[in-house]
Amino acid sequence: MEERVRVAIVGSGPAGMSAAGHAASLGMSHILLEKTDHLSDTIYKYQKGKHVMATPEALKLRADFGFEAGKREQILDGWNAGAAALGVNVRYRSEVLKIEGEAGDFLLTLAGGATVRAETVVMAIGTQGNPNRLRCPGADAPQIQYQLDDPGEYIDEHITVIGTGDAGIENALGLAADEVQGNVVTILNRGTDFAKAKKANVALLMEAAAAGRITVRTETSPADVRDGELLLDTRDGQETIRCDRIIARMGSAAPRKFVEDCGIRFTSEEREAYPVLSPLFETTRPGIYVIGALAGYPLIKHCMNQGYDVIEFINGNTALKPADEDDLARLFAGVPGGRTVDEWLALLRERIAIFHELSALQLRELVFLSRVRGFRAGEVVFERNDPGSSLFAIAEGSVLVEVSPTDSAITVGIEQGSIFGEVGLISGRRRGATVRAAEDLVVVELSRTAALKLIASVPAAARAVARISIERQLLQIFGSGLTRDDVAELVEGATVEEKRAGAVVLKEGDEGNDIFIIRRGSMIVEKEIAGKPVFLSYLPAGSYVGEMAVIDGSRRTATVRAAIRSEVIRLPGEAFVRLLARKPDLLKKARTEMERRREVNDFIESRKENFSGSVDMYSQTAQFLVDRGIGEATDVLLIDETLCVGCDNCEKACADSHDGLSRLDREAGTTYAHIHVPTSCRHCEHPHCMADCPPNAIQRGVDGEVFINETCIGCGNCQRNCPYGVIRMDSVPPRKPSLLSWMFLGKGPGPGEPAKAWRKKNAGQVEQPKKAIKCDMCKGIDGGPSCVRACPTGAAIRVSPEAFLTVARLAEDR
Amino acid sequence: MAGTPASRNREYATAHESFLRHRGFRWAKVALGLCGFSLAVYFLTDPRPRPSGSTWIGYTLGTIGALLIVWLALLGVRKRAITPGRWSLKAWTSAHVYLGLSLIVVATLHTGFQLGWNVHTLAYVLMMLVIASGMFGIWAYASLPRALSDNREQMTQGQMIEALHALDRQLNDAAQPLDRARSDLVIAALAQDYFAGGIGRRLSGHYPAYATQAAVNALSLAGEGDAALDRVEKLLVRRKAMLDRLRRQMRIKAMLEVWLYVHVPATMALLAALTAHIISVFYYW
């Protein structure tokens, strides 16, 4: 017999179930169609005993079912009981295959041939059925699974979890929870942040990593799945690990084919795109509504609220405001303009480029996590050197960027709809310029996490941000006098490429005239002489290569390869040729630059016979330094061991400049050709320590120094994340008597870090907390780093790699 | 092959040159100038009755010398007072070395070669002792660091001692199957104090009663094929190599420091004698 209902709800997850529950309580005729034989398959398939969270905490729950954070079993029991109590009409084992007909009379064909007639359809089928797959060789190997039902099933296995969203982290934690199982669990993160996961999950993961139960590998992605092992692309090159099983949790995408077959359009062609929805959740096919994860909302609370709302809408209550309305209204309250929440949201989406392709719901969620601020004309949004990593999007008005540190009259405008502050997302540096409101201004300020989440989950937004940052980088590199229009063609043709450590970007002798800008990471330049590669120079992020071939049409004169995992922007050579033709100033500048490099090349050529030994030595030394992580340093302490007498005055000076604690271990560390790299901070271009600092206490100062400020809570994450072991945890020792009273009266422990015994004896009543301590390059101390100033023989030197690692130094006499 | 971003706004950069070559031998040139000046005024004038400390040239050279001595002694304070500011200890060391050497000329000419058994000559002799020990120091600083670096091969001193302890534990276990006589050899090796013998041994690096060496010699004569014996012998050879390295490390470090045990106390004595010299000169004016 054919059933006929007012509303057919497809899928019984939190969204569908909440919708059915509300329909039942309103007395609306309904049917809940579920593919499996139980409610809420997604939650059902969570691993046993999983703790389910209820975020965002601030959001009110509006549903006929209760829901609060708790164990999977508890929640499922509650829902089953609720469904029974409300009298929800469920039909299990009823996969919907086809939806035909028009609003008012839809015909749903179920697996097995049965049909259901409904006036309206609510689709709440989620995205679980369509996980994102691995895209590397061996991706169809049998040891890869996209689902983990019971972590207790696996024992004594080497398991690699790929993806650091909530699902991946929870699976990894589950697999490593019981030591008796003997699993060796590794989790891979493509980047350094855990933007997609909930904070609490990240904290648990870090705790497990600290306890050695899970290996967390950041900046790592799978390269090849092999039998019993897995080849990884890491920051420092490729590495093979043992791996019996891969659990890939890299998100999922809408089951697009089925949804499109129902006549529903998507926002774009991207794999991760969502259906086009009206604010009432109605799709492009009238009468069919989409809610829940399929609408772009993976969180249970959102889903349940939407289930409630959609039934209200269908029931004719179209004036119902979403549950977060009050919170959003509060957010917009202080902003001039007097618009309603809906007007604001429509305005933001229409005007701000990176919001264009967000669904109304995604936008609501994003704005919920952001701040909206108004500024009067002339007011400062942020100052040069302010700390801060948030991203600003201009909703109304425009801003002026003061590009020159000395003259505030030199400005560059950024117009309505664009973004600024994006550098903070990429490098963690301080604000590079002061930004003022050019006219009355309204901006949306997205926290770094919210912005990264936006970039990670909406490809269109990622492209918009990438485009803008490429454009700005080009303008910065090729100097003033260029406008956005001048570089538009270059930006259009630009592509971002990832290079793993050691990958060749340019090969000596090859043809080609594309230009590369190093966006992150660093490169080394080599030239082959007498069959051996000779190290020419080191290029930090922000440099560009390859323009010589463009200017004089020659072949590549040297090989350029990535020193560490890097990202380059490839610019089409032809477009650059046209730009040079239009801009004689730029051509002149490029030619001067080229002349300088010719000289280095000539120098190498001239040396190759009589000095081949020293050139060899130099190349090997340079390679050693790059291997020791100098490739990502911005400023590093080196010790020339032909001069070092081992007096440790550098350590003592360091301790005496910083509360009596040394941030440097001179003797430890590696040495090659008498150049010693002591255990001391390199102030990495992309600091690993910064990646996961809960109070965001690690920052970069004006001179490029990475330092920890007084808000450190002593959690030790940075110490664990630092690959060079240069961060220590210690408490501030008691104050020492002055130098003179030590010299003449023998009071106190003398210069340098006081001994443990003395510290213990002189410790006060209050126990000092242990905090993270690392080199701050003697920030704020006149004269600069005291380790170098205090070296009696000139053995200790501080260098920036680009200045030190250049073959031109061979010509200098020491 | 590439353009690099504008250099960062760091004001300080450190030149890679040793204290001896600091700023193109700036202080060597100053010291030579001072010596030249002293020699010139000494030989171009003809004081009566004869050149001595109590002519105006004598007073001038004496004042310069005394001030230099006090300033040179302040290096010890400069080294330990890590105050802010644009000073460099390397520049101080460089000046200390060259100006200190110039004292040989300045002070000798100040004496007018009038030496005797008195407090004045005591001050002069002490100064020459300080300078002589300092010259040893220059030699040590210029030549030993390379040897120190080569010897340690990235190991810290702590790691060397740790490695020795580890070998000792292994030896202790491995030697259990050995017979009484051979066990005694190993026990003697393990029981021997690495550094016994005092400063002479430390500086010469010569350790005649070398129990580990003796044990190696004895065991290597004792036939092949015995696995336990082989293992002990190998461990003993490794222990000897590690001990040799540690002793070399200690020897070089001692050489780098030992002269300071003359240089610094002699400086203190010199300052006292210098004070006595100056007071007595003015007292008996």
TrEMBL record, chain A:
InterPro entries: 4Fe4S_Fe-S-bd, 4Fe4S_Fe_S_CS, cNMP-bd_CS, cNMP-bd_dom, cNMP-bd_dom_sf, FAD/NAD-bd_sf, RmlC-like_jellyroll, RnfB_subfamily. It comes from the Bacteria. Residues 354-455, 478-597 form the Cyclic nucleotide-binding domain. Gene3D superfamilies: 3.30.70.20, FAD/NAD(P)-binding domain, Jelly Rolls. Keywords: 4Fe-4S, Electron transport, Iron, Iron-sulfur, Metal-binding, Transport. It comes from Novosphingobium colocasiae. SUPFAM superfamilies: 4Fe-4S ferredoxins, cAMP-binding domain-like, FAD/NAD(P)-binding domain. This is Oxidoreductase. One of its GO terms (molecular function) is metal ion binding. Pfam families: cNMP_binding (PF00027), Fer4_11 (PF13247), Pyr_redox_3 (PF13738). Residues 635-667, 704-732, 769-802 form the 4Fe-4S ferredoxin-type domain.
Automatic annotation (TrEMBL), chain B:
This is Ferric reductase like transmembrane component. Keywords: Membrane, Transmembrane, Transmembrane helix. The chain crosses the membrane at residues 27-44, 56-77, 97-117, 123-142, 258-284.
